[in-house]
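Lab meeting, action items carried over

1. Structure of the two-component assembly. Owner: GW. Status: complete.
Input record:
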Amino acid sequence: MAKALAKEYELGKDFSVGLWSENPIFRQILGMCPTLAVTTSVINGFSMGMATLFVLFMASTTVAAIKKLVPYQVRLAGYVVIIASYVTIADLYLKGSFPAISKALGPYVPLIVVNCLILARSESFAAHHPMHRSMADAAGMGIGFAWGLVLLGGIRELFGNGSLIDYKIFGANYEPMVIMILPAGAFITLGIVLGLINQFSGKEKMVKETSCH
Amino acid sequence: MDKNYVRMVMVLGIIGAIVALALANVYKITDPLIQKNRKQTIKEAIKEVLPEAKTYKHKTVKEIDVYIGLDDTGKKIGYAFKSEGPGYQGTISVMAGANKELTKLTGIYVMEQIETPGLGARISEDDFQKSFRKLNIEDIIEYVKNKEPSKDNEIKSITGATISSRSVVDNLNKTIDVLRKALKNG
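Predicted assembly:
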């Protein structure tokens, strides 16, 4: 019983670290290319997040399943092929079923292949942990990545276009801050959000750390 | 050492084979959908720029995709044609409609563009697209900045996105020119 509880706790922790304490965007600063490029609106951020979540989850699961069969020397080559195939599946599916979203995301869906978040989780987690824990980790990381993209997309869409999910918030008289939608706006938004998060959560850590002395 | 080498090759080979098989199957399922979407986009674009056409015939004239619009009785009422060319950041692909004499535009529809969001990308907005309706194309199309067009062959460029607006106009002028010459010669 105690053992089962401990296991559950372990799984829950694997899942939850990706959401906040080791969030890929705000903590690990991984996968910056899509983070900066496609977060011009909530919908784009969400779609990118979901595509990445799918690839990350499937790739981590597969890697965890076959990790013992793959010789150490060729593991990265194997992982990249697996990741690339899931990315291609996601890309084809989006093109076939959601052409508008696929068009908006442009080349960034195929570029999930080189999103370091996915290879990093495969290499640093899935390759050393059992399958169920890898799945929990990938789900947490993927959802953590997705909410980060949605948050950034929301801020940029709100100020850059005066709308949220295409619904006009500020009314017709609002003059959009175009820079927020331009690439520079991505850096500004990410910088401010990162700063705020560090400001509010970093302090506790610092206090804890200094109190150890 | 030797044994390990063989195993490496085998494992990568097997992964590759499985992946190839899976991808081939996914492609087989999604390809018809993708093709359908592409046709659907073209169909919608033609309907937008040549609303009076009931059916159309596809023809390629000097590498331009031309759709000859026909009414109920099969009479030719105009052309829809694809005008593609460089924009500010990438290719802009526009479907344009014109009457059968090629003297007036009936409309344009931006099918693909990757211009700057909020600036150049506004060429996809209705206001800009509508301004091409009934435009006189006997001469070349011109654009004016920051004022309302005064002639019937002028459009107003989008503020802050002159390059994107100009690209659409330039591409259209080029395509119309090629098309007119080609159609005149039969």
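2. GW to write a short summary for the group page. Key points so far: Residues 80 and 119 of chain A are 7 Å apart (CA to CA). The interface with chain B takes residues 40, 66, 69-71, 73-74, 77-78, 81-82, 84-85, 88-89, 92-93, 95-97, 99, 103, 106, 160-161, 176, 178, 181-182 of chain A (CB under 8 Å).
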